[in-house]
Amino acid sequence: MANRLILCVLLLIISPWLLGKELVVLHTNDFHGHIQQEGKYAGAAKIAAFVKEIKAQHPAVLFLDAGDAISGTPVSSMFEGEPIFDVMNSMDYDVGLIGNHEFDHGYKKIERFRAIANHPLLTANAFGPDGELLGDAPYLLLNLNGIRVGIIGLITETAPTLFSPTGNEGLTFLNPADQLSELVPMLRPKTDVLILLSHIGHDAERLLAEEFQDLDLIIGGHSHTLVQHPARVGKTLVAQANHYGSHLGLIKITLPDTGQRAPLVIQGDLIAANELPDGDPATQALVSSYEAKVEDQVDIKIAFLRKNYSKTELQPILENILAEAIGADLGYYNRTGIRDVLSAGEVTARMIWNLEPFGNTLVKLTLTGADLLILLSQEPSLHHAVDAIDPERRYQLATNSFIAAHATLAFGDTITAVDTGILVRDILIQQIKANGLK
Length: 438
Ligand SMILES: [Zn+2]
Hints:
Blueprint lengths: L1 H18 L2 E7 L15 H14 L3 E5 L8 H5 L3 H10 L4 E2 L11 H8 L4 E2 L3 E2 L11 E6 L2 E9 L16 E2 L2 H12 L5 E7 L2 H10 L5 E3 L11 E3 L2 E4 L7 E8 L10 E8 L8 H11 L3 H4 L2 E5 L5 H16 L3 E3 L12 E4 H7 L5 E8 H8 L17 E7 H11 L4 E8 H12 L3
Parallel strand pairs: 1-2, 3-4, 7-9, 9-10, 10-12, 16-19
Antiparallel strand pairs: 1-13, 5-8, 6-7, 11-12, 13-14, 15-17, 18-19, 18-20
Helix pairs in contact: 2-4, 2-8, 4-8, 10-14
The structure holds zinc ion.
Zinc ion binds next to loops.
């Protein structure tokens, strides 16, 4: 009798979940144009095949992207990001987000991305010069198989420091927490599941989760963080799927069938590229048609490497190449601007495009050691040249146009900048072809 009672109580406790509906959320972030399968990166076709499978099996599926879809490969760079949104249509995304790299070709280009994409691109806190919202909407309210879902889109407030000022004049980025203070209380009563689609970075996203416990789930991006299982912060889960399509996030949300707000059961995992099925043929055909337009130019062998080079190892080597190219005292290549590592074996021009997808030019900056030290203090870790710099001396520095533009904004007339107009990428390809990496 006692056993039966325990069983009944147990059933009462778990029955809401047994009867409950399920929402499946699939997610990517920081895809950076990696439509073609390459090494650890799945490519669009394999992801599309998996999404298709899941959508066929479940009545309520959402496929989300958390921003920075473009900039990172030759196809993206040569055609200014547009093909990536075309390929994303074939992958059947439901909702996307504007990340900082969506500004790489100037904010006006975002209108084109919005026109190409079949899915809405959200942002609640990015505005153009006339105060116009730069996304399709600040948030969405959807009903999926009777489940009321709210999705809010936010980008990091630091975005202006992360893209070129040219073509991005007069933009405003509002504080994400301020936006959530308004939106969360407004949307919570209208939703069973409230999601923040965020391009803010994992640490900051965890802080937002702490502050806004009425969010059920944060699908994050920007910091390229591999979060194998969504991190629990109080009642809120915070997910992120690394970068470049190396992983696809899969989250199952089970709703209690009570009609009332009750705890959701949320479980998630990342699926690595090698665990995904064979590529979807239609998506692969589209990817191949774009790749065919660039392969003659980029699939060219330029060198052979005996070892792997990490970004930390590449930084001083690339800096030397820039300095030597214009006879400067020093080179500075920002670590976050080195977008890929180089692996032992054959090096192709494509790999240098992947490393420098932005099309930055080489600039000679003349500045004091003191200003140079301020510039280098922006690095994520201590720059290797810091100890050798004399604050009193003036230096000629070889750097890229991204750093030069931000330095000019920060220091004004105390520095001079001369843009050579030569692409950093071209110099790297030329030098690595002539001398290897040294
Ligand atoms: Zn980003």
